[in-house]
Give the backbone structure.
Amino acid sequence: HIRSLLQTKRCCISCVDINSSNLEESKRLFNIQECFTSIEKVNPNNFDGAIIATPAHMHIEYARWCISHKLSFLIEKPIAVEENGIEDLINDVAKTNLISGVGYPRRYSVAINEMKKRLSEGVIGELKVINSTFSQDFRKYRPDYKETYYAKLNTGGGALLDALSHHVDLITYFAGSAVQVSAFYDRLVIENCEGEDTGLINIRFQNGILGSVQGNQFQKPNIDAIELIGTKGNLRYERQLGLLSWNLSDALEWQNEKIDGNWTNILNTQSEGFLNSVEDGSPLKTNLSDAWHTLRILLAAKKSQIAGRIVSI
């Protein structure tokens, strides 16, 4: 978030972290104005907005601080690790003019929004099925995972609330509200953490669309793909390859278009979006209610395995 916000050249940044070594590292790497070791030391009148990037169990507490000081905010995903306090938070935001939302950057992807545009134009007919697949070796990208939020379930660890929450949010971007969920998940490979590293989630939406999200956090190579299956054809995007593909016939050959899928560029677009919203009041791509719905799907997925049944939302 720091890197992406500074890339815009539109803002100055200060940081709050209870871990002073994190602050020292941030000052070493970036042009940080001020650093604070507690939120109580911050004068909110000096700021226009806040990014809440703490472990997920603290998101609601810091969001409430922002509301109390009339400070617009973007929360990292997921919105929380449980539902307690979310409805009250949404109601309190509704009473203000604050910009608020949750960081699911794929909604800012050029390719994803091109898919949404073609879907609305009826290119693949009526949408019936969505499949989203994501896997990567999390240990490579976060070798310190055992010392982070990821190691414990109560701080937002595990594949479902971590990586796969992005993809649950993404398919709701296309399909809307879910009504039923079933799932399997397990810790198959990654050691020294409480949560699952693999998840398979099936979702039935209110409009009859069926969806699936599946992935793990140990495999090589990276896979990040979504496919929309309609009554007239299919659309799919493979982010790692930067390849948007479609097929409107029975032929085996697909048509292809290159659209950049660089993750840094997507994060930068999200940061631009947040600054635009703070300046002009335009809504963020994922509002708090959207993110609450995503969390309800994920919690239903966890309940599904425990109860051994399909869970209604």
Notes: The two ends are 32 Å apart (CA to CA). The longest strand covers residues 127-135. The chain has a mean pLDDT of 97.
